[in-house]
């Protein structure tokens, strides 16, 4: 009603001004126009008086209003507000020990395992609803890795706009196609469907397709369904990527969630960041498929086999060369022996037991008679070689 009075008053005011100008030009009575103008002013004043005063907004309402406004925009900013930042930091500090234990774990054959028996570890203090819904993302660490996503979720935080393509790359992003699909996804810590956060590096890690969907997605979808069915209820949610030392790709992700004042949503799990049939180098994000590993092993085996055969051939060649050298030495010795056996020597049968190669050797100077024969014959008769020669 008050709005209608203001509008009618304004129209009357404009009409009165027009009439006043027309009367001034024609030099006719201007009183009628004056009455119209004054009356229009009274009508607008009445409408203003009847309009209700603006209400004061409580702190909780302000917090949720800011959150709702941010949700309607592209959610590229790190935080919806600072309401839960202290809660998030304190909770993360309390979880450091379990995070270290998870980082040391090795994947065996089960990708998703329960932590603390599947029970979340939120306290009443860090899951209270007195400040309304909130979300908070940890600062990137010294290696530019995402650190955590913490939130008190409500349907009001869920986005209404469609998700846009992701354009920023988290650490360890060395993607490649495997079986017509890419190995990695830019994985949200807190899923887009829950808060609308998208191109926010504080909320993204390099995750395998298998980590992102179906494993993380099935927990996120359960929360999203609960919130849509219960728009006034809240879910405390925590997501922490688990890195080992200075590796750029997370070994896994811990998810905790608890619906407030009931157990419709309640889980505490650790999901290994693995992909079946792929070996991931978590230090830099490089990877090898089972086929690539087999091909590499086959190549190395072929190289080792070829090297072994070459070594065997080298050894055989050396053995053949040694055998040939030995045969040459034996043959040479035999030739020398044969030559020695057929050599002519000189002996003095009546005056000594030595044989001489030279008939004029001084060892024969006093011989009464000298006889020639072969060296072998002389040796057979007991003669030894002369010491002067």
Automatic annotation (TrEMBL):
Type VII secretion system protein EssD-like domain boundaries: 134-259
Pfam family, one: Endonuclea_NS_2
Keyword field contains Hydrolase: yes
Lineage: Bacteria, Bacillati, Bacillota, Bacilli, Lactobacillales
Region (Disordered): 53-81
Example GO molecular function: endonuclease activity
Biased composition (Low complexity): 57-70
Keyword terms: Coiled coil, Endonuclease, Hydrolase, Membrane, Nuclease, Transmembrane, Transmembrane helix
Name by which UniProt lists this protein: DNA/RNA non-specific endonuclease
Ranges annotated as spanning the membrane: 6-24, 33-51
Superkingdom as given in the UniProt entry: Bacteria
InterPro entries, sorted: Endonuclea_NS_2 (IPR044927)
Coiled coil: 293-328
């Amino acid at each position: 009603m008050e709005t209608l009075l203001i509008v009618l008053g304004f129209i009357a005011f404009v009409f009165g001004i027009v009439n006043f100008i027309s009367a001034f030009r024609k030099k006719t009575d201007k009183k009628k126009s004056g009455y119209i103008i004054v009356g229009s002013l009274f009508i607008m004043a009445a409408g203003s008086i009847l309009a209700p005063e603006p209400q004061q907004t409580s702190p909780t309402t302000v917090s949720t209003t800011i959150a709702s406004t941010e949700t309607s925009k592209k959610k590229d900013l790190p935080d919806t507000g600072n309401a839960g930042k202290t809660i998030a930091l304190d909770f993360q500090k309390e979880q450091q020990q379990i995070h270290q234990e998870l980082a040391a774990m090795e994947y065996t054959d089960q990708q998703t395992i329960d932590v603390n028996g599947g029970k979340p570890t939120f306290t009443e203090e860090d899951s209270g609803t007195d400040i309304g819904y909130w979300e908070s993302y940890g600062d990137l660490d010294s290696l530019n890795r995402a650190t955590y996503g913490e939130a008190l979720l409500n349907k009001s935080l869920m986005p209404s706009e469609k998700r846009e393509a992701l354009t920023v790359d988290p650490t360890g992003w060395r993607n490649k196609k495997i079986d017509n699909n890419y190995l990695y996804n830019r994985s949200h810590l807190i899923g887009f469907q829950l808060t609308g956060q998208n191109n926010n590096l504080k909320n993204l890690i390099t995750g395998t397709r298998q980590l992102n969907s179906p494993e993380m997605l099935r927990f996120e979808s359960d929360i999203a369904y609960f919130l849509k069915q219960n728009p006034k209820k809240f879910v405390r949610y925590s997501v922490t990527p688990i890195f080992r030392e200075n590796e750029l790709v997370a070994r896994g992700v811990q998810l905790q969630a608890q619906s407030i004042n009931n157990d419709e949503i309640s889980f505490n799990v650790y999901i290994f960041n693995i992909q079946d049939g792929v070996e991931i180098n978590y230090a830099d994000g490089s990877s090898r498929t089972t086929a690539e590993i087999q091909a590499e092993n086959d190549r190395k085996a072929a190289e080792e086999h070829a090297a072994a055969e070459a070594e065997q051939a080298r050894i055989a060649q050396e053995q053949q060369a040694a055998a040939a050298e030995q045969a040459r030495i034996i043959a040479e010795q035999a030739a020398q022996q044969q030559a020695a056996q057929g050599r002519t020597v000189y002996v003095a049968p009546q005056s000594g037991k030595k044989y001489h190669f030279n008939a004029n050797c001084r060892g024969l100077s006093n011989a009464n008679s000298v006889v020639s024969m072969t060296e072998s014959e002389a040796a057979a008769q007991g003669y030894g070689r002369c010491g002067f020669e």
